[in-house]
Amino acid sequence: MDSTTLAEVSGNVATIGYGLGTLGPGIGLGILIGKALEGIARQPEVAGQLRTTMFIGVAFVEVLALLGLVTGFLF
Amino acid sequence: MVRPCMVALAPRPRECALTTVATNQLLAATGEEGGGFHPPSIAEFFPASFLFEGTPFEMNRIILVRLVAAAVVVVLFVIAARRAQLVPGRGQNLAEMGLDFVRVNIAEETLGHNARRFLPMLTTIFFAVLFMNLTGVVPFLNIASTSLIGMPIVLALWVYVMYIGVGVRKFGVGGYLKNNLLPPGLPKPLYVLVTPIEALQVFLFRPATLALRLTANMIAGHLILVLCFGATHYFLFEAGGALKIASVFGLVAGLAFTLFEVLVAALQAYIFTLLSAVYLNMAVEEEH
């Protein structure tokens, strides 16, 4: 390492992709759960229904982030 | 028990670690006397087999953990149900709470009046997934038996065959396809786009994501736990001087993530069962 190099990156750059891949689902989960909370706060009597629907949505969003994890191992 | 399909997540000899040279030098300098730090890898999930090697019934550690988990579910429920009384004792109460949760919060909430038909299946799936997930935080078992893709694939295929089966039986092949592939109320040209997407969704993505979600969650959880406790071990025994203090953080993070894994195990069992119920409901519902 010469004197002007501070840090050097080795390994597969595709790994960065997983980090980027979590961004979208992260934002999505934030909006999704925040909105569900908002709905529950406004109308506590439908909390159960909202929570179930929220978990279904969470499952669909979450799988996107997990695809990033799996492709990180595969490719 | 079916032999796990290892095709989907087969390990590849590929450099996945992304480290900086500076970190490497630091770690090398402090860890010279010991073996150094070994980050967890995907190879964790493919331990050596010890029984029936070379046959389709090859056993390794994870398969054994699966058998243990299955035996535990059966024994617990036999104990709880054998001395069932009108006024439940503590064990029976706990079992009833679990069964009630699946019936009320999952089956009846999503399936409505159809709930009774699918309740045995949903209950089986919920408790199988829950107990096989929980082995990930049990000391000495230490691996979620759903973290190999085989078990989730079996469960997902069961759901897949069931929801297509009940849909076809109720509406006939043509009716089922029409219900699922041609959602009503769209302008005609849009069907060129919508129908292929719906077809992929119904016949491929639903079962694939069902299995993949569970496996990937368990793999990620296990890797995090191994990383935390591996780092604790490394800092405590092999790193020198002030770096030993870092082992405290590793231990605290490891314990916190263990609790988090319990939550994830329960949540994934809930989500798997909930989505199965939703898919079944989509197949038997009249209107789409």
From TrEMBL, chain A:
It comes from the Bacteria. The gene is atpE. It comes from Cellulomonas carbonis T26. Key component of the F(0) channel; it plays a direct role in translocation across the membrane. A homomeric c-ring of between 10-14 subunits forms the central stalk rotor element with the F(1) delta and epsilon subunits. F(1)F(0) ATP synthase produces ATP from ADP in the presence of a proton or sodium gradient. F-type ATPases consist of two structural domains, F(1) containing the extramembraneous catalytic core and F(0) containing the membrane proton channel, linked together by a central stalk and a peripheral stalk. During catalysis, ATP synthesis in the catalytic domain of F(1) is coupled via a rotary mechanism of the central stalk subunits to proton translocation. It is a multi-pass membrane protein. The record marks 62 as: Reversibly protonated during proton transport. The chain crosses the membrane at residues 12-33, 54-74. InterPro entries: ATP_synth_csu_bac/chlpt, ATP_synth_F0_csu, ATP_synth_F0_csu_DDCD_BS, ATP_synth_F0_csu_sf, ATPase_proteolipid_c-like_dom, F/V-ATP_Csub_sf. Belongs to the ATPase C chain family. Pfam families: ATP-synt_C. This is ATP synthase subunit c. GO terms for molecular function: hydrolase activity; lipid binding; proton-transporting ATP synthase activity, rotational mechanism. Residues 14-75 form the V-ATPase proteolipid subunit C-like domain. It is found in: Cell membrane. The keyword Lipid biosynthesis does not apply. Keywords: ATP synthesis, Cell membrane, CF(0), Hydrogen ion transport, Hydrolase, Ion transport, Lipid-binding, Membrane, Transmembrane, Transmembrane helix, Transport. One of its GO terms (cellular component) is proton-transporting ATP synthase complex.
